[in-house]
Amino acid sequence: MNRDAPSVNKNALKKDDLQRVTGFAAAPAAQTSPQAEALIVQIRESARYLYETRQMLCAEAVLAALNSGLHGGLSQAQVIAMAAPFCVAMGDSGCLCGALSGAVMGCGLLSGGERPYRRRRQLRADARHLHDAFKAAYGATCCRVLSKKVKHDSKAHFQQCAGLTAGAAELAAREILRQRPDLSGKADQQFLTGRHSRMVGALLRLLHYFLR
Fold it and tell me: How far apart are CA 125 and CA 142, in angstroms?
């Protein structure tokens, strides 16, 4: 087991690397539509944006990007209520990476469809696939291990977590759209393409805190 934290990856996870080292994206690249590929990138960058502008933490940003981007049906308040406990490695416990937790929640929400009781076994398998793909890509799933080399450098730590957040969102989006390609036509483009500066993002966070 690799005990060293991975290097900072600002471009998140590359599709070809993911398929090469994990086989996670079961459908070959040629079978993924250009529309789906563009949507995956948008979801990845939306999660990164939410984290980098400090509007949300890791698990929250991943789940929000997947839920709003693919019309998961949760309100933003519900997203925060569900994902907040998993942020910063389950309340700073140093355990499971919050970005991966958000990815698993998003995959369950969107891959479960209208008959989740019939898909419980598959949803557990999806969670294992996400776990294994994330570990293969980044060397670990434990926040304590992932942050080992950057924990004394706040800037590098922040950028690494932004990359992990983006990468986890991409992993989940790719698996969700592989199973449910119909969702690619339901993307919320206004949410996915909306961008504010870091300062405006901080103001929005304060606004949500005091008014919601």
Answer: 20
